[in-house]
Amino acid sequence: MGLGAYIAVSAVLFAIGVVCIVARRNMIYVLMGIEMILNAANINFVAFNRFNGDAMDGRMFAIFVIILAAAEAAVALGIVLNVYHLFESIKPGDVDLMRD
Amino acid sequence: MEDKLQKPFYAALGVITLGLLGWGAASAGAQGIAFGLFTALTLGGSLICVWERSVVRSAFSLMGTFTGVAGLFLLLGADFLAVAQILIYVGGILALILFGVMLSPPDLAERKLSRVLGGLALMLGAVAWVGSKVAGTVAWATADELPEPTTKVDEIGVAFLDPEGYVVPFELAAMILTVALVAAVYIARRKASDLTDPRAEERA
């Protein structure tokens, strides 16, 4: 499998992640879409790393992306918990405190 | 009307999976079959995640996505990353998301089919268009020219603590993880009475 195949997979995964964020009316889906997008970026990092001399930089970057994704998921879930306590809903459209 | 589309959707997924497997077998033999399998797992899982109305099903289908990505990492010779991916994503982040699922009341009318299908058509069309523009102009490297992948777990460990390498980002990542996790616990443990919604009475 060439580099192009991996990039195609990553691009499609990214596209589906964006749809997951935009098309669904639920904050949990936003979290899941973000994870998909980060995974797509990771595939790109590792694939380019492999097909450009197999140094370590791409892999190390992917590890840091995974670390930040874990931290992000924990904080985002805390925020969603609080939003649920405040608004009794986790639809993104219902969170409008700063609108007026 | 929406339930009628359930069967055609999964049938289409099955056809795409078989197509990917066949294409992989035709172009690169056993490795191609593995690539097709992991690709089908990755993209099928994420498609089911967008498609399904129940949040629980979406969350579990995301497991397929994460496992498939781990398999792709293996094919790319990144064994440590593949194991880390399964440990952190399937074991950690997915469990967190499943906790979040408990917050969402069952709302089967939430998914608007027109939004999902329209969004998918738009984004996949955009990917196909950009891909067709790029594919003709860039000469992608193929697997035939590559050396055998080597296990580099020990090198990753050394690079993390190498002053010439990644010791600064490594320590920063440790700090960020500590701060983020403590902060997440603090945020999540606040009681509802600590939070003030100026329009609470208005709504009640």
* Individual helix count of chain A: 3
What distance separates the N and C termini of chain B?
36 Å
Q: How do the helices and strands follow one another from N- to C-terminus of chain A?
A: HHH
Q: What is the overall silhouette of chain B?
A: flat
Radius of gyration over C-alpha positions of chain B, nearest whole angstrom: 22 Å
Percentage of residues in strands of chain B: under 5%
Which structural class best describes the helix and strand composition of chain A? mainly alpha
Task: Explain the overall architecture.
- The complex is a heterodimer of chains A (100) and B (204).
- Chain A has helices spanning 3-23, 27-51, 57-87.
- With 100 residues, chain A is an all-alpha fold.
- The model of chain A has no long low-confidence stretch (mean pLDDT 89).
- By secondary structure, chain B is mainly α.
- Chain B has two domains: 1-134, Four Helix Bundle (Hemerythrin (Met), subunit A), CATH 1.20.120.1200; 152-191.
- Chain B contains seven helices and no strands.
- Chain B has helices at residues 6-51, 55-75, 79-101, 113-135, 153-161, 167-189, 200-203.
- At the A-B interface, helix 1, helix 2 and helix 3 of A face helix 1, helix 2, helix 3, helix 4 and helix 5 of B.
Quick tags:
A: 100 residues, mainly alpha, Helix Hairpins, 3 helices, elongated, B: 204 residues, Four Helix Bundle (Hemerythrin (Met), subunit A), 2 domains
Brief characterization of the structure:
The complex is a heterodimer of chains A (100) and B (204). Chain A is mainly α and 100 residues long. Chain A contains 3 helices and no strands.
Question: How is the topology of this model organized?
Answer:
The complex is a heterodimer of chains A (100) and B (204).
Chain A: H1 3-23, H2 27-51, H3 57-87
Chain B: H1 6-51, H2 55-75, H3 79-101, H4 113-135, H5 153-161, H6 167-189, H7 200-203
